[in-house]
Amino acid sequence: MRAPALEIKSLTKSFPQRELLRGVDLALAAGGSYVLTGDNGCGKTTLLRIVAGLETANGGMLRFRSATIDLGHYPEALRREVVYVHQQPYLFNTTIAHNIAYGLKMRGVPKRRRELLVEEAIVWAGVGHLGSVLPHKLSGGEKQRVALARAKVLNPGLLLLDEPTANLDNDARRQTLALIEALRHEDVTVMIASHDREIIAMPHVERLHLEAGHVRAL
Amino acid sequence: MELLEPTREAFRLLFTGDAELWRIIFISLNCSLAALLLIGPPSVALGFLIAKVAFPGRRALVVLVQALLSFPTVVIGLVIYMLLSRQGPLGFLKLLFTPEAIIVGYMVIAFPVLVVFTLSAVQGADPRVYETARSLGANRWRAALTTLFEVRFGVMAAVFNGFGRVVSEVGCAIMVGGNIDGLTRNIPTAIALETSKGEFAQGIALGFVLIVLALGVNIALSVLQGEGGMK
Questions:
Q1: Fold observed for domain B18-222
Q2: Threshold 0.95, pTM exceeds
């Protein structure tokens, strides 16, 4: 087994009315694909958001590539390794190419290299035909594919996908599933929170279940 | 009242390049744009901070800024006058009855417009904008700029509204500028003066310029928004 990309120990998260995560222990092998299942409201999104540094945990330990992360001060450098994609991804109000280039720009990738990578990502996601269409005119499936391309182009150490096929029609869902399947050929650790049976049934995906604030392998 | 002749004279003044008239227009634009340039960035930043960062007294600050919106500009002029007058605490700056004094007044007048409009635009922004930017590797500063870019039409509306408020303002400009010919006489103060003298031609010409400016600003906003502003 490859060394873990991410280790979580005794992670807790409470809200005023509710204790959501009661000591999550988890280890994700580098390059592995994982699907996290669980009832609605059990804390899947919260767990992903804590790992992405978008929410803070109350306690516990997080290690990424053997480096311990201070949960109170999520390191900026880690934001360049961990990419989170919302259930309904937000695309900036500009062209698709600019959307996909955004993260590369934040990482200081030179313009020429950026353009090349964006072009590859557009082809990978099959959104080349959308040209200069503005995001608010894209369908949910097209937005999801652009968001996946925008995340994948960064070659992240850990990619967190929150319900990527929720609320999509059959065609859009099929195309999104094909991209998720294609991610296995990239050297990226992927954790997907999902109820989608096809994602859960993917042969290369390891199944995790979040219940009563704890994660267990299925 | 005979209106036709003064109106004809007004257009003659405008289109023959009457030096006095165009100097007044220049002073108006110069003071308004300088004020917006100086107060715009800090006001937009403050509007963003109030919208995004929770801090003690935030609610009180919002109420205060909103209250400033409805302050009579003549009162703002009075306060600045007292501050800048020879006996005032800032009298040593010798700014009273200069274009700089008008600029200071305009900055105070535009400030709440810019803050409140920006605050409203950022509060209305989708929370996923900031999170998406952060998750794609943007630091706080870049994520804030990205959010402002996403609500750029709201921020532009703030700037254009601020411009509209100051370019047509008369009370503060008269008090702190003194309506000095060739120095601090601007469009609204000149209209007030000329009308009081019964000289309608220049007043009509300048009024026409104000209306064109107001229309121009709104057309510019609409063009800039284009399709992107309409979702």
A1: MetI-like fold (1.10.3720)
A2: no
